[in-house]
Design a protein that fits this description.
It is a single chain. By secondary structure, this protein is an alpha+beta fold. The chain has two domains: 2-49, Calcium-transporting ATPase, cytoplasmic domain N; 56-101, no CATH class. It is built from four helices and five strands; from the N terminus they run βααββαβαβ. It starts with a strand and ends in a 20-residue tail after the last strand. The strands form two sheets. Strands 1-2-3 form a three-stranded antiparallel beta sheet.
């Protein structure tokens, strides 16, 4: 089984302190961490990182100049979201979003840029 902390906790799989520390270190570098378990035992971590497109900063600067608020909605952890907002220049982020919950916030329209 591969999943996040929540899934492993729901299944009663213990994440050892050393594995937890490794996962936090990866997340602080902007990596999304997946936990791999076999027969109810944690066997490894997998880190996946998004890459920032070279034109992302210019696109966000244009939006900012037009007075358009920028918001990062991600299913990643708060630590990963903060790392991405620092690089991409978003005003704020909403981390841990399930796909069905992504969309407009505060009564505002939203669009996706990938």
């Amino acid at each position: 089984m591969v999943g996040n902390r929540v899934l492993l906790n729901e299944r009663g799989i213990v994440i050892a302190p050393a594995a937890h520390a490794d996962a936090l270190a990866l997340e602080q570098r902007g990596t999304t961490v997946f936990f791999a378990a076999c027969e109810a035992e944690l066997v490894g971590l997998v880190g996946v990182a998004d890459t920032v497109r070279p034109d992302a900063a210019a696109a966000l600067a244009t939006l900012r100049e037009l007075g358009i608020k920028r918001l990062l909605q991600t299913g990643d952890s708060q630590r990963v979201a903060v790392n991405l907002t620092r690089f991409r220049g978003h005003l704020r982020d909403l981390a841990g979003q399930e796909p069905s919950r992504k969309g407009g916030h505060d009564g505002q329209d939203a669009t996706t840029v990938s």
